[in-house]
Amino acid sequence: MTGPAWLVLPTFNEAENLETVVAAARRVLGEAAPEGFRVLVVDDDSPDGTGAMADELAATHPGEVEVLHRPVREGLGPAYLAGFGRALSAGAGHVFEMDADLSHDPADLARLLGAVRDGGADLALGSRYVPGGGVADWGAIRRVVSRGGSWYARRALGLQVRDLTGGFKCFRADVLREIDLPSVRSRGYAFQVELTYRTIVRGLRVVEVPIVFRDRELGTSKMSWRITAEAAWLVPQLRRGAEHLRHPAGEPQGATSSRRIDTG
Prior knowledge:
With 264 residues, the protein is of the alpha/beta class.
């Protein structure tokens, strides 16, 4: 039997969304994860009280909600790495990434988990850019920037994955052990590209599950031009950083693919 499913939720000033997203995730994972689940809130000392709210949720739902407090805001990548470390040390069988602002629909957790647990994927990506996926509530400029970022990363790394910059994912836990998390360099949104690239380089199977991404209704986006610039600079360098993960003979260890999962 595999271990429980862990959902890692990095937060910074998400007090307006946290209770809603945790409640929805608990409902979905309670049905979709028969081995059990844990929602791990990784809070970077939010000044709006998100950490205290997370503590209240953990006290109300012991065994289902846990909080990891980090005293300094270091970025998305370090927050996720801290959360992954906690999940792996506790024997997680599957590990999710998901935004805490409700731009990702918690109902889709079940579909991502099914693609890995039942569909044989090592990593399932919630994809905006495969048939059946999409975005809502975005203006033209943001759509162009997002699609352009994925296109740029795809070309720079020679990949076929359509949505490399998305942050809604389900990993088989052993994948996180295989891709050498301590050597991950990215701190901002390039982190999403780097983890997917490392999984593919390792020869593991990646699939894209269509999702609809919705813009946040409450709170403030953490995206900035500085984060975008970091991604543009770092992505071409990811090949060197992941080269040591390749199979010694230069061949993949498993079938690597990028395809749409038919969930309907």
